[in-house]
UniProtKB/TrEMBL annotation:
Keywords: Cytoplasm, Gluconeogenesis, Glycolysis, Isomerase. One of its GO terms (cellular component) is cytosol. NCBIfam families: PRK00179.1. This is Glucose-6-phosphate isomerase. The active site is at 339 (proton donor), 370, 484. PROSITE patterns: P_GLUCOSE_ISOMERASE_1, P_GLUCOSE_ISOMERASE_2, P_GLUCOSE_ISOMERASE_3. InterPro entries: G6P_Isomerase, G6P_Isomerase_C, Phosphoglucose_isomerase_CS, SIS_dom_sf, SIS_PGI_1, SIS_PGI_2. PANTHER family: GLUCOSE-6-PHOSPHATE ISOMERASE. Its EC number is 5.3.1.9.
Length: 512
């Protein structure tokens, strides 16, 4: 970071702190939980964001607020919601919040019109106006799949109006699994691609059409719905205009589940619940837009992220959902956070000399406790952890299930912080727990559509806030391009590669 960067002196100050142990922070400040826990109220219920088991202190918060000021956080946030350019390398705005009704008026209006069109189609399917639809195979990849897969899995377990399968991988095994679970006579295909050119998606879509045709469907393309920001490409590909659901170019792929990319979610859970999901996200938008400094839960989370990644050198951050329905959240967050902030130059193109996005990973509790938590408690890596749980159970079995689930969630956070020694004499180093390991807890009243929307929007804004504090562009993703180009070159058969790659191609029979 150049010395002329207004952030430099603040980082210098921040780096001089020596963190007291977490337990000491609690002992020294009886208001700690109150200061670092904030409840965001939703229309029904709410979410508690408890960052008290992190090393954030009043002093840190003061200085991180200074850092936000030096990073022109307020101005960047204003630009985000005003629909101004926040993605300078591509000259684009990032208008996912407009899809939830929070943003530039004209973008919100456009999004509403497009949503009304989507609603008609979703309701027509539910009313049977398009014939019997029992299954939907949603084909897309990256941002065109991860959000829909997460939301469908989280919200449609009890009552799925239509059986939805999300297929992303080009590996035909994935598509075959969906075929095996669907009756071609009652299956619709959604082709989801912002660009409508992604090779995996277009290849899978062709194979799905073939499958329908081979199984007696007379008009396979009549069963296709296209979800895209490139409607002209979908027309070219053969989709009827009435079944093309467009969305705006200014919505990034990994921020697109709120747009027509969310079609399978609405098909699975119903229109009302889809709108509730948007409403939950809009509540978080308003919180992020209108709340200053440390009281803003997204910004506060980003302060802690910066503390651990930049000041403590943590290379990863983990998310454990003590809720089976959120099993796909870590996958979703991996793209959101790593594709957004896994950068090595600033928004102005200067090389950065500090770590940017940590590696996001995670899983579900309590499963993960019996697999990877050993390293969290006793390994040599310091891993800041987020725990996510719901007070209301997602099951109707004996309440003991949910009680044990929640108890374990809270116990893990407490144990990571407290540490101790499990041996009889308290001296066995193999049984020693260093403790002072940080975690944050996100506790939802219930995991319904509105809450999921708010939870996802919280992570979107946290990611943006991190990018602003680091001075990087969260909205481009050129890092995915080189590998794609090389795959094309290999297919074209013209380019030559390194000796190892050439040998692999030969071994697999892909070259002579
Ligand atoms: O290759 C990465 C990426 O461009 C993601 O950013 C995007 O979500 C995904 O591919 C799919 O792109 P599309 O929606 O255009 O098919």
């Amino acid at each position: 970071m150049s010395l002329s960067d207004p952030r430099a002196p603040v980082w210098k100050k921040l780096s001089l702190h020596r963190d007291p142990p977490l337990l000491e922070l609690f002992a020294d400040d009886p208001q700690r939980v109150e200061k670092l826990s904030t409840r965001v109220e939703l229309d029904e219920g709410g979410i508690l964001f408890d960052w008290s088991k992190t090393h954030l202190t009043d002093l840190y918060l003061d200085e991180f607020e200074e850092l936000a000021e030096a990073s022109q956080f307020d101005e960047m946030r204003r630009k985000l919601f005003a629909g101004e350019v926040v993605n300078p390398t591509e000259g684009r705005a990032a208008e996912h919040s407009a899809l939830r009704g929070v943003g530039k008026d004209s973008s919100v209006e456009e999004a509403e019109a497009l949503r009304a069109r989507m609603q008609l189609l979703v309701e027509a399917i539910h009313e049977g106006a398009l014939g019997e639809v029992k299954h939907l195979i949603h084909i897309g990849i990256g941002g065109s799949a991860l959000g829909p897969a997460l939301a469908v899995d989280a919200l449609s377990r009890d009552l799925s109006l239509v059986d939805v399968h999300v297929v992303s991988n080009i590996d035909g095994v994935a598509l075959e699994a969906a075929f095996a679970a669907c009756d071609p006579a009652t299956t619709m295909i959604a082709v989801a691609s912002k660009t409508f050119t992604t090779i995996e998606t277009m290849t899978n879509a062709q194979s799905a059409l073939k499958w329908l045709a081979q199984n007696g469907v007379s008009d396979p393309s009549g069963r296709v719905v296209a979800l895209t920001a490139a409607p002209e490409k979908a027309v070219e590909w053969g989709v009827d205009e009435t079944r093309i659901l467009p969305f705006s170019e200014s919505v990034g792929g990994r921020y697109s589940l709120w747009s027509s990319i969310g079609f399978p979610i609405a098909v699975a859970i119903g229109w009302e619940d889809f709108e509730l999901m948007l409403q939950g996200a809009a509540t978080m938008d308003a919180h992020f837009r209108d709340t200053e400094g440390r009281d803003n839960v997204c910004l506060r989370a980003a302060f802690a992220d910066q503390l651990y990644t930049r000041l403590r050198g943590c290379e990863t951050r983990a998310v454990f959902c003590y809720d089976e329905r959120l099993g796909l959240l870590p996958d979703y967050l991996q793209q959101l956070e790593m594709e957004s902030n896994g950068k090595r130059v600033t928004a102005e193109g200067e090389p950065v000399d500090f770590p940017t996005a940590p590696i996001t990973w995670g899983g579900v509790g309590t499963d993960a406790q019996h697999a990877v938590f050993q390293l969290l408690h006793q390994g040599t890596h310091l891993v800041p952890v987020d725990f996510i749980a719901s007070i209301a159970p997602g099951d109707e079995l004996d309440p003991a299930h949910h009680q044990i689930l929640l108890t374990n969630c809270f116990a893990q956070g407490a144990a990571l912080m407290a540490g101790g020694n499990m041996s009889a004499d308290g001296k066995d180093p193999a049984r020693a727990f260093p403790g002072d390991r940080p975690s944050a807890t996100i506790l939802c009243d219930d995991l319904d559509s509105e809450t999921l929307g708010a939870l996802i929007a919280f992570h979107e804004h946290r990611t943006f806030a991190n990018a602003v504090l680091m001075g990087i562009n969260a909205f481009d993703q050129f890092g995915v391009e080189l590998g794609k180009k090389m795959a094309k070159d290999i297919e074209g058969g013209e380019a030559s590669f390194d000796a190892s790659t050439e040998a692999l191609l030969k071994a697999a029979g892909l070259s002579e």
